[in-house]
Amino acid sequence: MSRLEDIKHKVLNGERINETESLNLFREGNLYDLGFLADYIRKKMHPGPFVPYVIDRNINYTDICISACKFCAFYKAPEDPDGTVISFEELEQKITETKRLRGTQILLQGGLHPDKPLEFYEEMLGFIKKSSIHIHGFSPPEIC
């Protein structure tokens, strides 16, 4: 039996695969193999005819950024007078709209603002947390 067949056998028997096996499946399997196994697990976890998903909304808390990535059409340089930072009032409005549409999560993202201290982010997250909506936030550069 090949490594790929061993991995398939393990998944179909309800066993978890490890990191090495995951990489082998990615490298040696084809899209059909991966799709078949993923759908098999999905049907075990959610046997009904519907697949669950998350309704979310992107909220950009600032467009002011020092990174100036070449692919980004969103950012404003720190000295640009058109740069913005979201107010709590606007943030609350966007969250309320999201919840009204049965959204359960926001994707919080923004530029790398050079003048905002850690307390700005702590206050913003605390404010959002009061609304009982899940936060999926910050890219690695934002965290750094």
| Spatial order of strands in the largest sheet | 1-2-3
Our Rg estimate from Cα atoms comes to: 21 Å
Count of helical regions: 6
Write down the secondary-structure element order: HHHEHEHEH
Class derived from helix and strand content: mainly alpha
Fraction of helical residues: 40-55%
Low-confidence stretches: none
Number of strands: 3
Distance between the termini: 45 Å
The 3D shape can be described as elongated
* Biggest sheet descriptor: 3 strands, parallel
Instruction: Report the β-strand fraction as a percent range.
Output: 5-15%
Query: pLDDT average, as an integer?
Result: 93
Task: Report what the structure shows.
With 144 residues, the protein is mostly helical. Helices cover 44% and strands 10% of the residues. The chain contains 6 helices and 3 strands; from the N terminus they run H-H-H-E-H-E-H-E-H. It has helices at residues 3-12, 19-28, 31-45, 88-100, 118-129, 140-143, and strands at 56-60, 105-109, 134-137. Strands 1-2-3 form a 3-stranded parallel beta sheet, with helices on one face. It starts with a helix and ends with a helix. The model has no long low-confidence stretch (mean pLDDT 93).
SSE topology sketch:
Layout: H1 3-12, H2 19-28, H3 31-45, E1 56-60, H4 88-100, E2 105-109, H5 118-129, E3 134-137, H6 140-143
Parallel strand pairs: 1-2, 2-3
